[in-house]
Amino acid sequence: MIYLDYQATTPLAPEAFAAMEPWLRDKFWNPHSAHAGGRQAAAAVEVAREQVAALLPPGGQVIFTSGATEAINLAIKGCGLPVTALATEHAAVLDSVDALGGEVLGVNGDGLVSSLPVTAERDRLICTMLVNNEIGTIQPIADIAKAKTGLWLCDAVQTYGRMVIPAGPDMIAISAHKIHGPKGVGALWVRDGIELQPLLHGGGQEKGLRSGTLSPALCAGFGAAAALAAERMDADAAHAERLWNRANELFAEWTINGSSTHRYKGNLNIRRDGLDVARLMSECREVLFSAGSACASGSGRPSHVLRAIGLTDAQAKSSIRLGWGRYTTLQEIERAGEMINAAAERQF
Predict the structure, then answer these.
(1) What gap in Å lies between CA 286 and CA 1, rounded to an integer?
(2) Closest Cα partner for 116 from 151, 80, 138, 85?
(3) CATH of the domain at 91
(4) So what's the pLDDT on residue 54?
């Protein structure tokens, strides 16, 4: 199998597995217990917290969650402010905004924010994804930082560990399994001085913002993946760009969705009008790629991101997303290109 769905999840790094194994096998202690075993587990959690925080701006705290969806919900619902988000945000953001009766802003054909609302109201939360999970568009974070009038939540799930996250956001949501860590753990970074109301009540863990027993194994895996990403960030980025350049050659007959310049180079969202994507995927079962966000797969609806950048339903349904990263080889890109192009040509 050739795995080209890195935006959905990434392979677990061997280093992350090794960091998790003792806490899964022998060191099963509750990190909130007062005995020696509990203190060892708690210490492992704090080491992981420091490793995760090292890739985030200074002046804030890392709150461990079950994933980015919980982190986003905590930020949006916990701040108690009116909320505005881009139309290309993840469903965790858009559904939360909808539940609160918030505002959604359009984007241009590249998926870039056209303008933030001009308002004198400072008590508002702005939500913008840094790197889009479907089309890879990178938002102009410096411009947003200058324009914002209230708090700012940045969904950095597709950014964290892959590029430096600039200062500016007040809250940042991240997830371990997008950086070769385990599924089931994420975090919300909260700038010092910002007060949130918890979604979960109980034992008051995570500074009272996220009650529940933490998993030392998941936290340790997250921390190890973050430390590895810090070491490999430049090399991983260069590798992704090499694969991007070759993939662009292989799929030159396809149309790129989103920006071709303001883009993370590990994501290629492309289309051929009239293509039956379900048939394409059936004929290319050796290549694991996506027809859109994994969270919305099987819904039958066209991608809300592709619709937001101006594509018709038919164009959106004729699109595929290819994603690669650290463990993808050039040979895999070559072979996948051959198979996908051959299958597509059989339809025309």
Answers:
(1) 5
(2) 85
(3) 3.40.640.10
(4) 98
Q: How far is CA 234 from CA 6, 161, 226, 326, in A?
A: 18, 10, 14, 11
Domain that holds residue 292: 2-6+232-345
Of 79, 219, 284, 295, which is the active-site residue? 295
299: which residues sit within 8 A by CB, 6+ positions away?
A: none
Instruction: Check the CA dihedral 7-306-174-101 and report its sign.
Output: negative
* CA gyration radius, the chain: 20
As given in the structure block, the two tokens for residue 243 are: 């694969």
Q: Do 139 and 130 contact (CB within 8 A), yes or no?
A: yes
Tell me which of 213, 229, 245 is where a domain ends.
229
Task: Tell me the per-residue pLDDT of 49-95, one tens digit each, with 9 for 90 and over.
Answer: 999 999 999 999 999 999 999 999 999 999 999 999 999 999 999 99
Q: Is 105 helix (H, G, I), strand (E, B) or coil?
A: strand
pTM value is: 0.94
Span 204-258, pLDDT tens digits: 999 999 999 999 999 999 999 999 999 999 999 999 999 999 999 999 999 999 9
Distance CA 68, CA 63 (A): 11
Residue 285 and residue 289: Cα distance in Å, rounded?
9
Active site residue 154: no
Six-digit token string for 215? 């998993």
Which uninterrupted H or E stretch holds 269? strand 267-271
Counting the structural domains of the chain, the total is 2
Continuous segment of H or E residues that includes residue 243: helix 216-250
DSSP helix/strand/coil, 40: helix
Q: Give the integer Cα–Cα distance in Å for 294 and 108.
A: 24
* The two structure tokens encoding residue 344: 């597509």
